[in-house]
Known about the structure:
Structural class: alpha+beta
Shape: globular
Largest sheet: 5 strands, antiparallel
Number of helices: 6
Number of domains: 2
Helix content: 10-25%
Number of strands: 15
Amino acid sequence: MVEVTAADHLPTAEDVQWLGVEERAAVGAARRAAAALAERLAFPEHRAAEVALAVTEVATNLHKHAEQGTLLLRVVRCADDAGIEIAAVDRGPGMADPTLAFRDGHSTTGTLGIGLGAVRRLADACAIRSTVGPGTVLTARFARQRADWPAPDTAGVTRPIAGEQVCGDAYAVRRQDDRLLLMMCDGSGHGPLAASASQAAVRAFLEGEWTAPDNMVRRLHTAMNGSRGGAVAVAELDPSAGIARYSGVGNIAGSIVAERKRGMVSLPGIAGYQMRAVRLFTHELPPDAVVVLHSDGLNDRWTHDPVDLWRAEPLVIALELLREAGVRRDDAGVLVARPGSAR
C-alpha cells in the first residue's frame, strides 16, 4: 500500500513478511525480522524490545502448539504515527476457551504460561479467535508510542504466491462521514509487474476525488493503461441509506454477509487493457452487514458459517477467510468492512 495523509483516507497497511513457524529456528528468525522492522520504523529502543519479545512469545507458541503455523509482520501507518501489526494463523488444534491463553499461569505444556498474557499487556490492541479443529487467529498491534488506537471497521490482508516477495493484489479504503469506499485490485500475473499494475490502481483511487464506483472503475482503467492491467472492483457503502453500490471488472468477488451471503456482480474484462462495459449495481446493506471483497486467490465457495465469525474484528475475519479459502496457488488479497460501525 502507498502512504497517504488526506483526511478521508484511512490508515494504510503494508504486509511486509509471511513467515512459516514450524521449526525451532523460525522463532529466532521471526524475532530478528520484527526487530529489524521496528528499527526501520524508528521505534524507541524500549518499544522495539517489547515488539521483539511479543513476536518471540507468539512464534514460540506457534512452534510448540500449532499445526501449519504462520506469522505475518506488517506496517500500519496513519497521518502522525506508524505501528507494527503481527498476526498468527494456524490450522489447529484450536482452543475451546481462547481467553484462557491470556491468563498468566495457564499452560498446556507444564511451563509457567505467561507468554500470551505478556503479549496482551505489551500490545496496544489484541484480538484472538479460536475454534477446536480449524485453529486459531491472533492479532496484536504496537504503536511507536503507546497509544489507544480505535478498533478499525475495515481491514485487509494480502499474501504473495509462494516464491515471490511482492504481491500483485492490493486494496485501499476511503471514508466520507459514515460512508466507506473500498477498492480491490488483482494485477495480472504475479511478481513486480503485477504489483506495479495494482499500485497504479491504488494511487488513482486515493489521489482523485471521491466518485461513484462505476466512474472510479473507469478512472482506474485509465490509470492502469500501459501496465499489465488487472481485475478491479469498487464498493461504496452507505449505511445511513442502507445501500451498497458496486462496480467491478474481472475476477474480483464482492459479497454482503448478514443473515446469508449475497454476491455482487463483476463484469468480464481487464482494467487497463480491455474493458467493454462498466455497470453500477445497487444492493441492500443491512445494519449488521459485513462486506467482503477478494481476489481469485481465494475461492468463492465460503459461506456465512460459522455465524460467530462475523462478529469478530475485520482483520480476524480477513485472516480466517484467507486461511480457509486461500487455497489456490496464486496471489491472494481480501478486504473486510463492517460499515455499520463506521465513524
